[in-house]
Specification:
The chain is mainly alpha-helical and about 100 residues long. The protein contains 5 helices and no strands. About 70% of the residues lie in helices and about 0% in strands. The model has no long low-confidence stretch (mean pLDDT about 85).
Length: about 100
């Protein structure tokens, strides 16, 4: 409880620092000026992740009882990890079609 409140106040102090730094003010103006473009980019990423996750789920869902694609959300998790090139290795396609798809 109290520790969480202290952390919140620390974050607020960081935002107060932004007002005193000319470079950070410029960055904030640029980001706010490109807000529409960022929203379009975010929308496209969400559509891409949902599409790839859904396709991989339907490709891999019948591959056996040990499949890691048990839901579309797990397919989306695979898509996010693959797109960001983190590659945890916890989710990987097992069928030939799934490996060809990605």
């Amino acid at each position: 409880g109290a520790l969480r409140v202290c952390r919140t106040f620390r974050i607020i102090r960081i935002f107060k620092f932004v007002r005193h730094s000319k470079e950070l003010i410029v960055v904030m103006k640029v980001v706010s000026g490109a807000a529409k473009e960022f929203l379009v980019l975010l929308l496209l990423i969400v559509i891409f992740v949902l599409s790839c996750g859904t396709i991989m789920y339907y490709i891999e869902c019948d591959s056996g009882p040990d499949t890691v694609f048990r839901s579309i959300l797990e397919g989306c998790w695979w898509a996010v990890v693959t797109i960001t090139t983190v590659g945890y290795g916890d989710v990987a396609p097992k069928t030939h079609l799934g490996r060809i798809f990605w």
